[in-house]
Amino acid sequence: MCRGLASLPTTCLERAKELRARLGIFCQKADSSHSEYSNKADQVRPTPDEALKWKESFVTLLKNKHGLATFRKFLILEFSEENIAFYLACEDYKIPKSTSKLDAMAKKIYEEFIESDAPREVNIDHETRNITKFNLVKPSISCFDLAQNKIYTLMEKDSYPRFLRSALYQDLIKKATYKSAKQQISSKKSHT
Predict the structure, then answer these.
(1) Stated pTM of the model
(2) Left, alpha or beta for 187 (phi > 0: left; psi -120 to 50: alpha)?
C-alpha cells in the first residue's frame, strides 16, 4: 500500500475498496454480462399468477426461473449481483463431484467471491471470511455454508423487500395483469 493511503482512516480505505470493486464489476458488466442478463430478463414472460406468487416468499421467487432472472436483473441494477451469483455458485458446488473438481471449484469460488479484493467480493463479516478460509484447508460440500447463509439472509431481508417495491417488479405486475385482463376480454368476446 502506498504511504498516502496508509495514513487514511480505515473506514475511508474500506469505502475506497468497496467503490473500486463496484466500479470494476460495473465495467465488466457493461461490456458483456450486463447485456446478457438484461436480455434474459427482458425476455421473461411470467404469467400474472406466477409473478404475483413471488410475493409469497423469497424461496418461491428463487425457485421460479422467471423470478430468478428478474431478481438477478434487479440486483444488477442495484450493483449487488455478486450476491445471487455467489449463492448460485454455492448451490452448484453442492452437486456431487470428484474430489479434484471439488477442490478446484472451492478455490475458484473463494477467489471470485470471498477473498479480500476478490473481483466480485460479497459483503460478509471478517469472522465468516476467516471460517470459510479455514474450511478450504480440506474442502467439503459444506465449506461455504456459513457464508452462503449470510448472503441468503442479506438478500432475503434487504434485497428481496426492495425488489418487491421496485419499479421493475411493479411494472412487471402491471404488464402481466394488463395482458391477462386483455386476454380475458378477448376470450369473452370470442365466446359471444
Answers:
(1) 0.71
(2) alpha
Q: Under DSSP, is residue 87 helix (H, G, I), strand (E, B) or coil?
A: helix
39-52 pLDDT, tens per residue? 444 554 787 778 88
DSSP character at residue 100: H
Other beta carbons within 10 Å of 79 = 13
Task: Please give the domain boundaries of the chain with CATH numbers for all domains.
Answer: 48-179 (1.10.167.10)
**160 and 58 Cβ atoms separated by less than 8 Å:** yes
Residue with cell 465468516: 128
* CB contact at 8 A, 173 and 51: yes
Dihedrals φ, ψ of 124, to 5°? Answer: -125, 160
27 to each of 35, 157, 188, how far by Cα in Å? 12, 28, 50
Closest CA to 55 of 78, 71, 37: 71
